Amino acid sequence: MDLIAPTKQTPDGFCSFHKLHSGFGGRISNKLSRTPSSSRVFVGCKGRVLVLSDSIRCRAHDGYQKHRRKQVVAVSKVEQLSSNGRLKNVEKTPYGNLNGGDSSNGLEEFESNNQLRRLVRNGELEEGFRLLESMVYQGDIPDIIACTSLIRGFCKSGKTRKATRIMNILEESGAVLDVITYNVLISGYCRAGEIDNALRVLDRMSVSPDVVTYNTILRTLCDGGKLKQAMEVLDRQLQRECYPDVITYTILIEATYKESGVEQAMKLLDEMKSKGCKPDVVTYNVLINGICKEGRLDEAIEFLNNMPPSDCQPNVITHNIILRSMCSTGRWMDAERLLAEMVGKGCSPSVVTFNILINFLCRKGLLGRAIDILEKMPKHGCTPNSLSYNPLLHGFCKEKKMDRAIEYLDIMVSRGCYPDIVTYNTLLTALCKDGKVDVAVEILNQLSSKGCSPVLITYNTVIDGLSKVGKTERAIELLEEMRKKGLKPDIITYSSLVGGLSREGKVDEAIKFVRDLEGMGVRPNAITFNCIMLGLCKARQTSRAIDFLAHMISKGCKPTEATYTILIEGIAYEGLAEEALELLNELCYRGVVKRSSAEQVAVKI
Q1: 3-state class of 281 per DSSP?
Q2: What pLDDT, on the 0 to 100 scale, is given for residue 86?
Q3: pTM reported for the whole predicted model
Q4: Ordered strands of the 41-44 beta sheet
Q5: Buried b or exposed e, range 474-497, using 16+ CB within 10 angstroms
Q6: Phi, psi of 447 (to 5 degrees)
Q7: What is the pLDDT of residues 393-415, one digit of tens each?
Q8: What letter would DSSP give residue 379?
């Protein structure tokens, strides 16, 4: 490739360039050969570049396609070349014809590429794809950067097949591809779980893969538990003299400890060091996490203390890993000491650090100490978030201190920390369990105005609460409301309503709900069927309950112990106590009903 360097400025305000031979990488491919007539380039002193190009030959698959290029293309607004040789923010403009040829085709290609860039920038991917097809059909060579963005856009939206089609178009168009374009497509396949397609792209790349290419594939294979296959890919990487970096080794170390334990991972760490690849703090964090997960906390602490200062210093994440392990094993005093040591070493705790401690203390019921930790956060430059307050609210709700829970909800908001849906779900669950469903409904109605959209579990909580206190009509209204908001009720929603209707003696309505469920392809569970049978038995319709048992079995739903005890109590309730006891003994003998359960039922009969 001929690289051009400036020698002098011409009277017209342009710098004349002469050719220098260079093995310039990145965008320039050895598949390009320029004719002698394209040997001079003039660059304007204000950044305007004139490229004289007669023709370019590009190899496409089995032969050469000769693309007649435009005689003159002017490039303006050239900022810089990136590390891969790409021109950043390059805008092409027609500048005339120095060779006396027709420049109209150059203008058309420039305008098409400009339009393609605009479409991609605006997220109009389908329109961009159609324009790309039209450009290539007309013999234009598309802008590779815009096409790479187009591939990225389709990959993000899950349309990897369309992204692959763009890559095929680029390979056939004569455009000079680089590793970045391939990496974007491979990354898209990996995110979509299409690792086989990613490996196929790796095999067919027209340029050498870089370490990013391999790291993307290795990460996906390791996350999928395919360490053996990842090691095979690593071998191929080494054969191509693409050497692993710290990210490569960290990925493999993490996968190794998950599959074979920390001892094997340590061997890989030693190999990494012997190859001259220096571990970073992320590498050490992965190993410390592995040691903690194996229940070897003391070894993890020793490993932390022995981390070589020449390699790296432990960061807040390192300490958080140890801290979480200390809390999960109940070593609260050690956790406090570690926090003090951490601050003493100049490693500032993060919000996550404090949240680990608050969560632990709340689980232990030490709400007072948790509040102390919460109040200390601003002194360390940390602002509490919803994850800081949620354990406190849950703790107050668990202790049925609803007033304190609502008090801290108000404190939370007054400090500029807005509750998330988890906060409200915690509060709604506690209110419903406490029988304060009207307050729960009121809070539910205010959620949207507070910028917090209810989710399925939110509605299920309140619907269940209403159903249990005999307010199924209001619960059904909420069912319709959630449907209008695009939320699809699940089996929990319907089971709550069926149970409520059955308890209120509205068994036929409950059965209708079950039929509707089956019509929608949702299979009722044993709890749903048991609610219907309980309602029928209470209404002295045990024969219908027995028929419903047959229907339950025909739908592939296995009866539970509760199913049989409901029917036995129903039979006794209709005055057939002797028959009920006989059936109970038979079921107990067959092991369908436990002896302890049978004794409880017998007492009721």
Answers
A1: helix
A2: 42
A3: 0.67
A4: 2-9, 14-21, 41-44, 49-52, 72-76, 91-93
A5: bbbebbeebeeeebebeebbbbbb
A6: -60, -50
A7: 999 999 999 989 989 999 999 99
A8: G
